[in-house]
Design goal:
130 residues, 22% strand, 4 helices, alpha+beta
Length: 130
């Protein structure tokens, strides 16, 4: 992600915007659930008691993304933390811009645990129209 941001800083004009879908799994890395051994978690995931991590990067968080943006001359405008086939908000949709101005507003952060339900509802509505 850092290499992408570095390159996007070079390519975007001032005011140019970008969008990246990235991991937020790092927010959960130190949770007690993540310290459980595989022989405990695998059957619980299969029984849908625990969520699967979907191979997300445990080293990335929404907070780190904002810091990397700032480090590379970008401003993170908004972030939507979303669930991905589970309950935990392990993904993040980030909108950012190249900004050479010191006057930047804070990042708008939205926590959306209903993202997958919304996606399913949209999919069903699309099928009805077909």
């Amino acid at each position: 992600v850092e290499a992408y941001l570095q390159e996007l800083r070079r390519k975007l004009k001032v005011g140019g915007k970008g969008f990246i879908h990235h991991s937020n799994f790092g927010e959960y890395v130190n949770s007690p659930r993540e310290r459980l051994p595989d022989f405990v978690t695998k059957p619980l995931i299969k029984a849908k008691v625990l969520d699967w991590a979907h191979h997300r990067n445990p080293g990335m968080t929404a907070e780190l993304f904002r810091a990397l943006c700032a480090e590379h001359g970008l401003h993170c405008i908004s972030q939507e933390l979303v669930n991905w086939r589970g309950r935990r908000l392990i993904d993040c949709l980030s909108l950012f811009e190249r900004s050479d101005s010191a006057q930047q507003t804070g990042t708008k952060i939205i926590r959306n645990p209903g993202f997958m339900r919304e996606a399913a509802r949209i999919r069903r509505a699309g099928r009805k129209r077909s």
